[in-house]
Amino acid sequence: MAIPKRRALVTGGGSGIGLAIAQALAAAGHDVAIAGRDEKKLKDAGFPYFVIDVTDEASVAAAAKAAGQIDIFVANAGAAPTAPSLKTTRALWDDAIAVNLTSVFLCAQAFAPGMIERGWGRFIAIGSTASFRAYAYTGAYAAAKHGVLGWIRTLALEHAKSGVTFNAVCPGFTDTPLLAGAVGRVAAKTGGDIDAAKRALAKDNPMGRLVAPEEVAAAVLYLAGEGAGSFNGQSIVIDGGELIS
Prior knowledge:
The protein is α/β, with parallel strands linked by helices. It has a single domain (about 5-170, about 210-240), classed as Rossmann fold (3-Layer(aba) Sandwich). It is about 45% helix and about 15% strand. It has eight helices and seven strands. It has a seven-stranded parallel beta sheet with strand order 3-2-1-4-5-6-7, sandwiched between helices. The N and C termini lie far apart (about 40 Å).
């Protein structure tokens, strides 16, 4: 059976998980664009792109207008700030909520109505194992990622008969520039060693390794497909068994 060609947009698509998702969707025959704040990264990725700030309502709305019909939307943009919970500043908290949670809220409001009007769509948010559990020094990030699942599940319930599905993919520690940056910040604040910190994170995975971005992309590709129509309000966890260990 031929797979219909759909139009997809991936936020945070210039590197890491977002780029792997864009590449997987393109390899499956979809028309893919990416979005983000760093124009150099977007340009280097080799896809049509939109420079947007996913935390800004006007910026997201303008991107939705410029993009036109989008059938598959992947809300991947995020950041992983770290700080001891009781030393977390209000600015860090606000930034973490804005980029990891408010961005998903704004993108759903801008892009999902068109999908619902057309009667078909896939809205996929990238969550985290931090959507389910706590990690030291990640209080603001974990709060935001827990919120992503609440938002996605509510959208899924409200629009279950629309032909549009709302799901999340929740990876464990993944080998990306985002992880490297977070590990570096923790090491700097605690006086630890970066390589040792990465090895410690890999130990959380019963497989003894970090998740590959391509593994996350494979789950997104499935949820974006025609055969995933009954997947709705779900969260696919990709962690090598961490949450059950």
